[in-house]
Amino acid sequence: MRIWYQRPRSGRASHPIVYKSQRITVIIPCLNEEQGIEKVLSRMPDFVDQTIVVDNGSTDRTSDVARSFGAEVLREPVRGYGRTYKRGFASAIGDIIITLDGDHSYPPDAISYLIEALLHLDVDFLNASRFPVRDPAAMSFKHKFGNWILSLAMSILYFRWVRDSQSGMWVFRRDILKTMKLTSDSMAFSEEIKIEALKNSRIRFAEISIMYTSRLGENKLNPWRDGFYNLWFLLRKRFER
Ligand SMILES: Nc1nc2c(ncn2[C@@H]2O[C@H](COP(=O)(O)OP(=O)(O)OP(=O)(O)O)[C@@H](O)[C@H]2O)c(=O)[nH]1
Ligand SMILES: [Mg+2]
Questions:
Q1: Preceding peptide of 45 cis, ω within 30°
Q2: Looking at ligand 1, which atom is closest to the CA of residue 80?
Q3: Does residue 18 lie within any of the structural domains?
Q4: Which of ligand 1's atoms lies nearest the C-alpha of 36?
Q5: Predicted confidence band at 6 (pLDDT cuts at 50, 70, 90)?
Q6: Closest by alpha carbon to 100, among 53, 157, 35?
Q7: Domain count across the chain
Q8: Residue 2's CB: how many other CB atoms inside 10 A?
Q9: Which terminus of the chain has fewer CB atoms gathered within 10 Å of its CB, N or C?
Q10: Ligand number with the minimum distance to the CA of 28
Q11: Quick one: which of 148, 165, 169, 154 has its CA closest to 211?
Q12: Which domain range does residue 179 map to?
C-alpha cells in the first residue's frame, strides 16, 4: 500500500510519509556544489522522508541553498568523499538509503524507479550503473576507460560481473550497514561499499542502468591520482588479511 502526503514546497514533510511501508533517506555529499545542489533538491520526490546534505567544508553557498530546500545539513570539516558518507550514514533514519552526487549528474527522477526495483528484485543493495553513457558530454573517453579498468579489476577480483564499480548512486537497506567494514575516507569509498555488499553472501546485490548527465559546477576529481589510488585500494582490500 502506498500512502503519500503532501508537503510544503520547501521544508520537510509535516506528516509522516510512507513509501510502501519504507522510510526513505537520501544522502548527498557536497564540496562546493551550490549550482548542482539547487537543481538536485528541486527535483527531489515528495515521498522522501529525510534529505541529508553533508557539506564537506564548502566555501560557497551549498549549505544555505540546501537549507532553503529543507534539507538537513551536516558539516564534515575533514575532506573526503568517504568521510562525508560515514557522517551521513550515522544520522540516517530511513529503512532505505539512496545516495547521489550534489553536482546534478545523477537523476533524482530515477529514485522511485530504483526503489521499485530494489523491492521488486528483493535485493539489499542496488547499484545504479551509469553505463551505457548516452549523453556524450557526460563522460570523457579517458574517464570511461578508467572506469572500465576499475570495474573489470573488481569483477575479476571478486568473481562477480560489476558494470560500474565507481557509480555514486546506490539504493540499499540501512540495516546492512551494520555488517559492513567501511574504512575508506576517500573516493575509494564507492568501490568499498560495493565490495562489502558483494562479498557478504547474505547481502543480495543487483545493478541497474540510469541516465548519467554532465555535472554542473567545477570538477574536483583528480582522474589519475584517484584512478590509480582506487586500483591500489581494490588490490589491497582483496588481499588484506
Ligand atoms: N572529489 C571530492 N568530492 C567530494 C568531496 N567531498 C564531498 N564531495 C562530493 O562528492 C560528490 C562526488 O564527487 P565528484 O567530484 O562529483 O566525483 P565524480 O562524480 O567521480 O567526478 P565528476 O565526473 O567530476 O562529477 C560530489 O557531490 C562532491 O561535491 C571530496 O573531498 N572530494
Ligand atoms: Mg560527480
A1: no
A2: 31
A3: no
A4: 27
A5: very low
A6: 53
A7: 1
A8: 8
A9: C
A10: 1
A11: 169
A12: 24-239
